[in-house]
Amino acid sequence: MKEYKLVETAEAGNLPAVVGIWSKIKGLLFKEIDFSKPVVLEMTVQEEKVLTEVHDFLFQEIKFPELHDFFFQEINIFKKKNK
Known about the structure:
- The protein is an alpha+beta fold.
- It has helices at residues 21-29, 45-58, 64-71; strands at residues 4-9, 13-18.
- It has a domain at 4-30 and 41-71.
- Helices cover 37% and strands 14% of the residues.
- It has a two-stranded antiparallel ribbon with strand order 1-2.
- Strand 1 and strand 2 form a beta hairpin.
């Protein structure tokens, strides 16, 4: 679906002009933002579920024994494994 905006010039009159990709990009990049308003996110149920799962994964509790075992595991680089 194409977007049109009305161009009001002396030559063109009041004719619609096709909105190009560059106009859309400029409109997005140089949009004025009012920082005094609170930010409100409207999400669907699925988006909210995914965000919750990602948050839980990123901020999960890591217990010290598991971390200690991971960092201080025995590594043999130059020796053969002892069986």
